Amino acid sequence: MNRIKTRLAWASMLLVAACALGIGATRDSGPSTQAERIDAITERLACPTCDGESVYVSRASAAESIRNQVARDVAAGRLTDDQIIAAIADRFKAQVLLVPRATGFDSLVWIVPVVVLVVSVAALAGAFRRWRDERPADATAADEELVGRLLGAEPGTGRDDPS
Amino acid sequence: MLAAGGIGGPLGRAALVVGLVGSVFGLLAAVTAARTGDRRVARLVIRFAWLTATGAVGAFVAMEWAMVTRDFSLDYIQRVGSRSTPALYNFAAVWSALEGSILMWVLVLAGLTAAVAHKYRRRIDDPMVGWAMATMFATAIFFFMLTLGPANPFAPGAPGVVDGPGPNPLLQNHLLVMFHPPILYIGYVGMTVPFAFAIGALVTGRLGEGWLVETRRWAIVSWGMLTFGIILGGWWSYEVLGWSGVWAWDPVENASFVPWLTGTAYIHSVLVQERRGMLRVWNLSLLVATFALTILGTFLTRSGILNSVHAFSESNIGPWLLSFFAVIVVVSVGLIGWRGDRLRSPGVIDSPISREGAFLANNVLFAAFAFVVLLGTVFPLVVEALQNRQLVVGEPFFDRLSGPIGLVMLFLMSVAPVLPWRKASGEVLADRLHWPAWCGTAALVVAVVLGASGWAPLLTFGLGGFAAGAALRQLVLATRRQGWRGLVGRANGGMVVHLGVILLAVALAASNSYTRSQELNLEIGAPARWGGHTFELVGFEQVDDDRRTAIKALVSIDGGQAYAPAITKFKSMGTNIGTPSVRTGFTKDLYLTLEPPVKPTSDSARIKVFVKPMILWLWIGGGLMGLGTLLSLFPGRRRRPTDPTSAPVAVAGGVAP
Prior knowledge:
The structure holds 2 protein chains of 2 kinds.
Chain A: H1 2-26, H2 34-42, H3 61-76, H4 81-91, H5 108-134, H6 141-153
Chain B: H1 8-36, H2 39-68, H3 75-80, H4 87-92, H5 98-119, H6 127-148, H7 180-190, H8 192-204, H9 210-240, H10 251-276, H11 280-302, H12 318-338, H13 340-343, H14 355-387, H15 395-415, H16 426-432, H17 434-449, H18 455-482, H19 490-514, E1 516-523, E2 528-530, E3 533-544, E4 548-557, E5 562-563, E6 566-570, E7 576-579, E8 581-583, E9 588-595, E10 604-613, H20 615-633
Antiparallel strand pairs in B: 1-10, 2-3, 3-4, 4-5, 4-6, 6-7, 8-9, 9-10
Helix pairs in contact in B: 1-2, 1-6, 2-5, 2-6, 5-6, 5-7, 6-8, 7-9, 8-9, 8-11, 9-10, 9-20, 10-11, 10-14, 11-12, 14-15, 15-18, 17-18, 18-19, 19-20
């Protein structure tokens, strides 16, 4: 009875959580402002003169000019985010994409983490399996009888010295 | 007088030599004492440790003196000193470039060497302490040599210079520049102490749990300082840089984050070793990795091969640091290999659904996270070396990969604290997780009712509530059993740290996902309304001194107090530095920046407004992490002798002989 109650409680909780998640995750968060669109685009572009910083973060003049270009494109409203980024990547011959492409050698930066995670989880699973196999089997009645006999015969000698 | 130079240079150089001599003799004495057990030699170790510290303090004071007196005979002061820098920022300018920051490293390291020698003064003839001291001294020798060689802060400069540009303007406009670097360095360099004891344990072969108990507090304090330093860095970024973020996955940030990740893994997995005597090689490897990664990170960011907002100009300390890194790895791996037979752990982990199983999963996750961050940081170098082209790996890459890892970590934080050691049955779990899971569900429902959207933030809120429930459950049970003692000790203090981490995670998810921003063209006398607030430009303020010209736009929010985002032009640099102005609140911050170009003569200004939810909770979460770290340093409940354990129980006052 108790068990059924517990299960019911968990099931209802999971149902509530799933509903809340479903409602929240699928709802529209409303239109974004132009500034937000500019931010989202410039977060994906690297400032060409300041190694490692995005156009969004950087206050350098090169970043400023790219930001203005993006602002103009967004204001014109003709291009999608990806088209704006592609146009800027074309204009600057240097790499301005902050997200490495998933093609060629660059794809390694995406693949290697996944491989590492899979390998380490597999290694962990392997270790648990080995530990399970290595675990000494539970003592049988015969073992216990033997230990009891030895302990009874010579008290104190049946155990390893802990040091 | 100026051409002849002040006394800072000669005094500093002399002090560095004293420190180097102290550490060389300290190393010799420590090794001799550890090998022969000679008490008289062992006592010399303490003296040499103090001599080393004296040298380092002397050099640092000499550098400060040179900075304060604007001794432009030194090359370093010519680069970072200026007559017009205000006293406070001038004081902090000592650590604003490479040589000074290495000097600070020397100061912290030598201070720690003396502190360790003092703490273990009664056991200084114990070979393990001896070898640990030898490791500290060897590291100190390396850093003293850096300051006397390729990163010499006391090198004489060109004659005739009477003024300099001062430190980077970004390091001149917030008080945190006084605290963020030193605290971070204490944490970063503090990782040397547990590493040194690990080496001591390996050399002496005393690989039981004694050395862990010795270094527990050192590791926790260093970890806490590193955490605190990183969070202060985020705060500084938010208040100063003007892009409204706290973390940019910049190479230097990553260089501090990667050792933090391995250090965090260590302070968790060390519990498994103390309790079960297992994971010995793994724990040693984590400590070696943490220490080695601090050196590798310094190499990556201080040698000029990677650039970032933090990076200093190119220098030739790269090969030195890389060689030192190689030595650390080779020696440590060699020692671990040599002691392999003694490191075999006696126990097995019975079930993945157990406390130790959860710790292992946590470790795999932290190690994978550290690897991902390191990979993203060095990948541009690999591409450049192999294919001779430029590539940038930036924030979107790290965000994309750290999101899922963070969610799994939150899940583990929910389940692990309720798991018993050895193994758990489904019933026990269902019972213990019941109300933490309701906390998670409640958090999720509240978030949805408040209008939250998106998978990632909602999962963060739900799992955050779940994890907070688990941490609170542990704290409630502990305080019910033991009163106030239920709040101290590692397990309970650790739960307070967890609560801080959860707050940070939730606040980061909320502020990253729900920041709204808009650019407003404000005119004097014409308030604009956006995001539920009214913004009105009330005027400009111009500050002009011999150092800079700052233009502030005064913007009144909701008819109240005026906030003053500014743009500052530093005369020596010619760069425009934007300074944001923030109205902090419990639920959201209003973050204003002044956008160029600015004409104070006109009556309009472009103001960018960010509405950022929950930012204050980032800092509260950070504070809670600090508080939890402190609580965990107090001794908690003594373990009852009847509690199951297969590792030796710590004996008060030291290791079992």
